[in-house]
Every structure is written in structure tokens, then in C-alpha cells.
Specification:
Elements lengths: L2 H12 L1 H74 L3 H23 L1
Helix pairs in contact: 2-3
């Protein structure tokens, strides 16, 4: 017999052959899992991460828009309150009437602003 055959018979008799087969099987399974892991990483890098970045940018843009909208509404209320106070504080009744007329005239552009 040749030396590799003798070694094979000794390994089989000692029971180490079974462990070698299991080891080879486990190594093949690990290689398959590594391939699958690489595929998942590729999908993450090429599709999911760029989409998430786009969504983050869109969210930030939307949040800035909402902040601007809220600020505009706040300022609009301030202008209305100022116009009302200015009309109310007037010293003579004639000035109050003219201020109230101008208030109703100035309110229309603000309503147009609120629609946009």
C-alpha cells in the first residue's frame, strides 16, 4: 500500500476521517454564506444606501419648507395684529375709519399670500 492509503485507513480507524468530512462541509457552508453576504452588501451599497440618502435630503427639504411656512403664517398673524392695533390706536374717529378701510384693503393681499 501507498502511504496516503495507509494514512486514510488509520484516520478511518481512529475516527478522525468523520471530523475531516464535517470540517470540509462546514468550510463549504461558510464559503456559501460569505458569497451571500457579499451579495447583500452589494445590494446595500448600490440600491438601499443611495435611496436612503435621497430620502434624507427630501426630508430635510420638506422640514425647511415647513419651517418657512410656519414662519410665514406667524408673520402674517403679526401683520394682522399690527394693522388692527394701528387702526384701534388712531386718535380721531376719522382716522380710525380710514385705517379700518385701509385694513380691509390690505387684508386681501395677505389672503392671496396665504393661498400660495
Amino acid at each position: 500500500m501507498k502511504p496516503p492509503e495507509i494514512l486514510g485507513m488509520i484516520e478511518e480507524a481512529a475516527g478522525t476521517r468523520m471530523f475531516e468530512t464535517k470540517k470540509q462541509s462546514a468550510l463549504r457552508t461558510i464559503e456559501k454564506k460569505d458569497v451571500k453576504l457579499q451579495q447583500i452588501q452589494t445590494v446595500l451599497d448600490e440600491e438601499i444606501i443611495p435611496t436612503m440618502e435621497t430620502l434624507r435630503k427630501d426630508r430635510n427639504t420638506y422640514m425647511a419648507w415647513m419651517n418657512n411656512k410656519n414662519e410665514r403664517e406667524h408673520l402674517f398673524r403679526f401683520v394682522i395684529a399690527y394693522t388692527y392695533t394701528k387702526a384701534k390706536v388712531g386718535s380721531s374717529p376719522n382716522i380710525q375709519k380710514s385705517n379700518l378701510k385701509s385694513k380691509s384693503q390690505t387684508r386681501r393681499p395677505y389672503k392671496d399670500l396665504m393661498k400660495s
